[in-house]
Amino acid sequence: MIDSDDTTHWMFEYYAEFRIVEKSSVWTPYAYARSIPFEGKYINVNKDGLRVTWNESVVDHADDQPPVRVFIFGGSTMWGWGARDDYTIASYLSKILHGQGYQVEVTNYGQMGYVNTQEIITLLRYLQRGEVPDIVLFYDGLNDVASANHNRAAGLSRNESVRAEDFNFSRRMDDLTETWFHYFLPGISGDSIAWYWACGVGCVRRNPHRKPGRSAMRLSGSP
Prior knowledge:
Layout: H1 11-22, E1 25-28, E2 32-35, E3 38-39, E4 44-45, E5 68-74, H2 76-79, H3 89-99, E6 104-108, H4 116-128, E7 135-139, H5 142-151, H6 160-170, H7 173-184, H8 190-206, H9 214-219
Parallel strand pairs: 5-6, 5-7
Antiparallel strand pairs: 1-2, 3-4
């Protein structure tokens, strides 16, 4: 999606900001990653990692009805790839509804690279925190098709194979420890390795006041 306005006066600055945002993300449970907060001229991401959306300022009065809360989910198209803040799909929707007299608050939960499964999980996490919308919209397609083709299964994230590798790597600590000993201390028995792992590193973890040796510190995950 490209902002349809004349791009000559903003395009280069926009993509300079976009390159920073695109390469910067933070881990989030279950959905894996989301944008980090960012303040720019054309791209702004709030403290929750959500793209800023145009919403009309409303003066609150005691007898006013609260605005209709609209949550929108999707991938990079919904996030607003190629569009300035006020020209994303979410901002256009907010402008159209306000122009027709509706009091709405549109929130853009789109994240680059997301598939629909990640979006549903994200919605569930917000519901758990008490963030309840009146209307939820999903806009998906390309990422889901690309992911299904890559993973040979529908509904998985585009980088699911990386997550599987991370999981398998975390389970190989014993094998890595044994390999380390056999490489640096050839001829040492498996029983000795097990004893060192249980008594050496284990004692370090059980006795936080004991200062471990350098190798024990490395094995226990300390810098």
